[in-house]
Specification:
With about 325 residues, this protein is mostly beta strands. About 5% of the residues lie in helices and about 35% in strands.
């Protein structure tokens, strides 16, 4: 990727560059950096996040350089929510840094050990939020190398790509071409869900007693845009302990109701507090009376970016209730 290529994202401009200038309280390591030039407040107009993707078993090196072209920043705070932690002397979720010649670099990040686990990186100053929804996702081994082979993930969208780490501007992914992409890749992939074809293998089977979902034979086609959905294969899911977090509703749950609902996630009384199944905008889950067989169908390209159904602990998430109703 050319060193002078600029990308507009999250109210910042991204550019791949090399620099040895770092803040005193950042980790100093030589190597390529992705720079962010502050030019405006994040206004929430993005439809999709900037995603930092890292394969399990690896860390995110200090790739990101914040450059203040206006020289207006005196101190910047980096915050992580989720299981990711900065490795700046010792693991922590908040790091502050002062500009050195207008430049700041984020320390190394350990993303957490859970496959498909997600965290969020925020960049804040005293005056404003510089970026609030940079997503960090952990992918299975070998998935990063496949990203460049998925046609709708364009070269412009792939801001940075190394062996184990990638940065994707999901606003630049050609989601509108998903149908053409799926129709042109209808052959069954050889085995693993990470294969490059457009149709994603079904089914993820979710069982609260299992650490990872089981991948089962079958096929599905799912559009990449929202809302996330749950289809109920029973007429009375509420009577079986199911409740849902409705799509884009903060802090409250609703009774499960057949035949289908637009949701962010689902809960069950039998799971108790502290556990929910998150259903992203690109997935449809099918649930019934069985708590050990929840099927999840996800759009392949979105799944390649880590957008899959996943178990979460709702406690650290401000918009998610902890307990079912």
């Amino acid at each position: 990727m050319c060193a002078d290529t600029l990308f507009q994202a999250l109210g910042v401009v991204l550019v791949v560059m090399t620099s040895q200038v770092v803040a005193e309280d950042s980790i100093h390591e030589d190597g390529p950096l992705i720079g962010m030039v502050v030019d405006q407040v994040t206004d929430g107009s993005r439809a999709h996040p900037i995603s930092i993707l890292v394969e399990e078993g690896h860390q995110i090196p200090p790739l990101f350089l914040l450059e203040d072209s206006t020289a207006s920043l005196t101190r910047v705070r980096f915050e992580l929510t989720g299981s990711a932690r900065f490795h700046a002397g010792f693991p922590r979720s908040i790091v502050e840094a002062s500009p050195v010649e207008g430049k700041i670099r984020v320390p190394r990040i350990a993303p957490g050990e859970r496959r498909f686990g997600e965290s969020t990186l925020k960049l804040l100053s005293e005056e404003r939020a510089l970026a609030t929804d940079i997503r960090i996702a952990v992918l299975p081994e070998g998935w990063i190398s496949n990203l460049a082979d998925i046609p709708i993930i364009s070269e412009d969208a792939l801001l940075f790509h190394s062996k184990y780490v990638a940065v994707v501007d999901e606003d630049l992914v050609h989601w509108d071409r998903w149908e053409e992409y799926s129709m042109h890749h209808i052959e069954a992939p050889p085995g693993h869900v990470a294969a490059k074809q457009g149709l994603r293998p079904l089914v993820e089977r979710f069982d609260p007693s299992a650490t990872d979902p089981d991948w089962c034979p079958g096929w599905c086609i799912r559009v990449p845009w929202g809302p996330g959905r749950v289809d109920w294969s029973i007429s009375n899911p509420w009577d079986w302990g199911w409740s849902v977090k409705p799509e884009n509703i903060s802090g409250s749950l609703a009774p499960a109701a057949a035949p289908s609902q637009a949701v962010d996630g689902i809960y069950n009384l039998a799971w108790g507090c502290g556990q929910a199944l998150k259903i992203p905008d690109s997935c449809t889950a099918t649930a019934s009376t069985s708590l050990s067989l929840i099927q999840c169908c996800c759009n392949h390209a979105a799944a390649a970016l880590g957008h899959v159904c996943q178990w979460i602990d709702p406690v650290p998430l401000p918009d998610w209730p902890n307990c079912p109703i």
